[in-house]
Amino acid sequence: MRESLAERRRCLNLSHEAVAERANISRAYYSNVEAGRKDPSFKVMKRIADALDSRVDDLFFNYDVPNRNDGQCVIAVH
Asked: Where is the HTH cro/C1-type domain (predicted)?
């Protein structure tokens, strides 16, 4: 999970603060989720995925299929 969140955030040129603001959570909480120190509820996963213009299953669940959301960023979730 950590790599896909960080990769997607960097791909969109967003800071931790920007993602947290978009998801209506604190920067510290988002940083902890991205680092794997916190396990968010599904509701928070959905808000983070929306903030990253992605889908919950693409960011938080392990699949070997690459994710193409906008034709520019490809993230393989492992």
From this structure: 5-59
